[in-house]
Amino acid sequence: MKKTKRILLKTLKILAKILAGILVLLLLIILFIRSPWGQDIIKDKFISNLSGKTNTTIDVEKLFITFSGDISIEGLYLEDKQGDTLVYSKSLEADIPLWPIISGNGIGVDEVNWNGLTANIIRKDSIAGYNFQFLIDALAPSDTTSTAQDTTSAPMNLSLGNFNFSKFNITYKDDVTGIDSKILLDELELEMEETDMENMIFKVGDFRLGNTNFSYIQTKAFPESEDEESAPMPLISVASIEIKELSGNYQSVPDGMLAVLNIQNLNSEDALMDLADNTIDINSFLLVNSLVRLETEDTGSSEKETAATEQPADQTEPFQWPQWKVNVNELLLQDNEITYLVGGAIPKEGEFNPNAIAINDFTLNGSNIYLEGQSAGLSLDKLQFTEASGIDFNALNFDLEVTDRILKISNFDFAANNNVLEGTFSAEYESIDNLINNPEGAEMAADLSHFEIALGELFKFQPALKQNPYLVNLSNKKITGSLKIEGPVAYLQIPSTNINWGNNTNISASGSIQNPTDPDNMYFNFPKIRISSTKTDLGKLIEEDSLGISLPQDIQLNANLRGSTDNMTASARLNTSEGNINLDGSFLNRGQLAFDADLEVDSLHLGNILKNEQLGALSLTLTASGEGENINSLDANLQTNISSFQYNNYAIEDLKLSGEINDGQGTITSNYKDENLNAELAADVLLDSVSPVVDLNLEVIGANLTKLGITNREMRTAFRLRGIYEGTAEGFQVISSIKDGVVVYDNQTYILGEFGAAAYITQDSTAMAVDNKMLNLRLNSNTNPAGFVDAIIRHYRSYLSDDVDVPDTLMNPVELEVKGKIMPAPIMRDVFLTSLEELDTIDLNVQFNESERLLNAYVKVPYVNYSGIEVDSLQFNLDSEPGKFDFNLGFNSLAAGPLDIEETILDGNIENEKLYLDFKSIYDGEQLVHVQTETSKTNDTLRIHINPEEFIINRNQWNIPADNEARFAEKSIKFNNFRINKDHQEFAVTNELPNVEEEHIALNFENFKLATLLTYLNPTDTLATGRMNGEFVLQEPFGSTGILADLEVNEFNMLNVNMGTLSLNGESLGNQNYDFGLATSGGEVAMELAGNYKVQDTTAQLDMTLDLQEVQMSALAGFSMGAVSSGEGSFSGQIKINGTTANPDYNGELIFNEATFTMAMLDAPFTLPNETMTFDNEGLYFNNFRIEDLEDNALVLDGDILTEDLLNPSFDLSITANNFQVLNSTEEDNDLFYGTAVFDMDATLTGDLNLPKLDLDLTIGSQTDVTYVIPETELQMQQRDGVVVFVNREDPDAILTQTEEETAVVSGVNIDALINVSEDAIFSIIINPETGDEFQVQGEGELDMSISPNGRTSLTGRYEVSDGFYEMSLYNLVSRRFEIVDGSTVTWFGDPYNASLDLRARYNVETSASALMASQISGIGANEKSRYQQELPFLVYLNIDGELTQPRLSFGLDMPEDEQGAIGGQVYGRIQQLNEQEQELNKQVFSLLVLNRFYPDAGSAGTSGGIATIARDNLNQALSDQLNMFSDKLLGDTGLELDFGLDSYTDYQGNAPQQRTELDIAAQKRFLNDRLIVRVGSEVDIEGASSDPRDTNPLIGNVSLQYLLTEDGQFRLQGFRRNQYENVIDGQVIISGLALIFTQEFNKFSELWDALLMQQEEKAKAKEEEEPQVQNSQPEDNANENQDNKNN
Questions:
Q1: Which of 167, 1064, 1402, 1467 is spaced 20 to 30 Å from 1357 by Cα?
Q2: Number of separate domains in the chain
Q3: Which pTM was predicted?
Q4: Per the database record, which ranges form the Translocation and assembly module TamB C-terminal domain (predicted)?
């Protein structure tokens, strides 16, 4: 027992010792582990063991672990297999309770404080794995036997506390998945309140992140994820989030995406996101001063993705409300930046690019944002930002409420740039899905109370719209207004619409629209539309000048419109200040085409609108209707009545136009007739949408073009025009012709001849033809006009460059043929081109074949004289073929004013891709100018070189370097050694001046004579002379061009006016400012133009002064080219010039200092004593401006000439004169009029140039003695008037045959004049200078004359003749002078040409009365008869009565009162008897006038024949001249001449006397080099007939053969037979004979004999000289003959 006890006790002691040892061991172990020494041993052992296994460096500075779970590690360093840092941790403290882990209650991390972590995790391939794989392998157990795991245990609980991380630098690079990422974390604080991994619940107290940067680059596409079991959706709640200074980027190389994030400040409170319950609840969210940037590549996949995701319409899923619950109490985004770039696009100011969006200062304030169930809403308090393109989103705020039944937007306020929108919107519907799929069922209401639209902002989104000028102009002003819409979408009501633009433009409307979402079934009804505007507003929208219109001052449109796009009815009333237009109509295009329209135009002033003063007011009515399946089968009716229309103040009234179309075919007709226009129109129309046809026939039976306002000259016309037009899809064809064309000009008839024109143009064909006696043209080509123009250019360029396609590579080579002639015709010269004085036929020919590379052309203009510009023998020739291109241009002479260019030739050819030109001018057999050039082209540079050989200017050889050249590029010109010189003269062109840095062209002159260049323009008369020295520079010639100059012309003389020295200076002031100076001094003109200008693109801003220091009047005489014969004195002035070169502003004055000038035609000197005239852009201003004559009498101007319209200045002048002498010339000064003219005047001139108004009180002074010489051509016209009047007896009112009543002296003026003629004023008219016919009158009168704007002239008053004479030539035999009897009068009662005449003219003759008294004294004695042989004075009176246009002429005989009793009064008694016997009286008057004696009163038959009246014979002569003029125009240059003559007489050879008038017609032709002249002719009875039936006029009654014995025609031989009236005695006789005719011109008989004697002496002397040389004369004679032939 005891033993057992001892054993037990001993055992217990042993166990106690063992237990005590264990406890001591445990205590020692715990002390060892807890002690730094023990933990160091364990750490070193573990690290040594692990380092030994991995063969890497592993180090831990300090490791401390407590049983409570506290872990502290400092200085942890792990190295990877390559010796690089794998992990380095500066310090790590973690509170991880161990007991819960031991007890199996989960893992808890109460707190982690980790500072200074650096980790590099890298995987280069999938075989080696990550760079930490060696650690996993080292720590893996050696026993690899797998142990079954119990998967039924409950998941481990995870409890997380607070995490504080700082100074993290983690790199993760995985080459296998293509991930390269890095994070630099400065500070992270995370307070976890709850972590439930099983239910995915994460509740965070506070989360703070600061100063963190990350980078993530994905270089490979993510592999497709494998299907995994769905995990429960998390619930995340955060009480507070604060992120500051977070930046990073994400780049996905496969997706071409780069995202950059920079968050400066992000705060959020009470944020909950329950994805399992689809709930988001945020109390507040703040993002400030942050940046988000997203860049993507333009992969072009969007369309594919869109196509892949699109679903057919029938598969569209119904709308479902999101099953989310969202609530955000407050959202604040402030001053953030958002950038979105696609494909490397860059934002551009002024142009919005959706692929380049850069938003700055993005601010968004929102509240009460919610989504729950079937409702959503928000309050947007503020949204604003700016975008790089220029979008300035100023404000957007509204309240939104959306449910499944309603949508409301209230307090809507939008402002962006200059756009504003304010209003409310609401909609009611059955459901959102119904709203999307069937919006017509919704009820909506929109009230846009105010909107402002700036269309210019639209250009940022669509820059191409800037090309639309109307949108550009419209964008200059805002569009403002208001709009209300209400009702169902299927039937929207628009109660009011109000739109404003500009200052006065307004559009208002009200109505309704049905089915607006279905355009095919849309129906609209606007019963009230009102549009009003003004010229000021619309002028800013429409460019009036470019369109050539002028808008009315006020415009208002009232209209109503209803219907659909294919069936509508409208009514419109357009009222303007220029007239009104009313339109009512309907249009249907729904399976069938139909229309109906009524148009009324009331007093529409087209002239004001179209800026054409020729057009007046238009009033018309138009009714049109039609129907048909299409335009091809249309049945239509048209009725138009132009009730009134004015053209050039001519009224066209009741012009009707009607048309009837059946089944697409019909006729449109119009007939119009008034006193000045008679025309008929018929046009057959074939309507075809592809090939319409119009066949037009217009017959103008008569048109007075002058009255119609088409021409200023008296012109009438008639013609028949037919034109056919046929259009095709590829082109068109036009055929037109004019037949029976005639123009009556100045009562002369011109035949237009048949005129035909045709054109056929398609894409592959062109044919044109014109046929007329003036123009003949043919053009044919196998392409369109643009095609053959391009082909000719291509052909030309092919010789200069190899880059041009050669013809054999062309698919369709072009061919072209052109032939034409322009031929002279009287109608062209006298009617159409009145300034054309002479023209020879112009020939044109062009032949072009591109495939054969042939181009031949010529143009020949033998002679043309147009308005004094003469061109002689102008010709152009072109000849090109493969390898050859030659051309030449030349003329014999060109004269225009002071220019008189002699023979000029330009030859050219292209060879070896170079153009060679040879220019020469020849005068008087020698070369005046000769220049040869060589031109080549390399790329875009043109090179010109002048050949130094035979380089002649002004008849002399000049020098130029052999390497000279000028190179022209698009915006560059370069010169090399471009310098010419001779003797001491030099001219050079360069662009390398050392003192000019900018691009420039410089002209340098050294002692260069102006005449050197100007002699070519006129080799006989000097245009200008002088010597030039200096330089002239154009700076920036292809940009803002300025002038630099230092140039001087010494001894400058222009048009024989001494200009002294001309100097030109210019310099650059910088910033495109230039100084400029131009001056002349030391001559007859002293002036200076000085100032500066600023270059602005194509113009310049001017600031200059023109100082006219002294301009001598002698210079004015020189510049006038003879118009002013002399000048004395001078004038000066100063003119300020501002504005631009395109629109200069100027003002100044001219001061005249005893300035005297004499007009050559008047030969009367006028003096401007000390007068000043001011002027500016608005006009010229005269203040008592005096013009004095030779006797210091003045004509005074006072008032203005306004020049706002330079082409139509207006006047406001008063003109007074007292005894002013305006004419003081002799016949040598002016062969048209001369003498002395003096007048008094008091007048006012108003109106404008188009219609001046003159009120005039004129008194012609007593010193007046004026002679007017009627030119020969005018004489023929004057003598013709009233002789023969052609009358259309069937239609006396026919326009074409109307005789113009000549009452319009001048038109286009308004004159009211009171004219007083002084008694001593003398007026002479030389009717015919060759015969000496002259009319002179002296007397007094008072006349009242008025001329209306249409030319109608009224003259009333009486002129009483006190003295004068009429000197006339009778049959070119004798000249008689009639003295006008005092008391003769001419009285006007209105029409100046229908004056009442009461004139008596007296011819004094002294002759014997024996022949007169022969019958009375036949039976008396010789002594008594001798009494009658004495010469007695007799008076022959010419009495002119009746009207001016139809004067009645009669004669009378009388004797002076003191001689009436001579010879017992028997002679006077016989005179009184004669006055009662008209025929006998006329015979005796004729005898007295011709023979200065009485004709014997034999009483035999025929004694009175041929002396009807002198007046009648004169009229016959005038008509003969007119017929001869007409024949000259008719025959032209045919060589055949027609002569006409009228002869009137009284034939007494029958049983009774009868009046006879015969028309002599003769034809003449020259033969044998004009040496033989054959003339045949006959007489045609016009009035009366021969009493002898045998006495008939043969067809050829007169024959004459005339041969020129000498070449000059001085001696002629003539044989003739003619039938002529011989005299009053013999009557009609036939004369045959042979004559030798000698012709010699002389003024005095002495000259005749002197000429004859001189000729005889010269012949004798020549004979004496030739006799000794007779043996050697033959060669010389041959030479002379050759020379004569050459001259001929």
A1: 1402
A2: 3
A3: 0.58
A4: 1187-1642
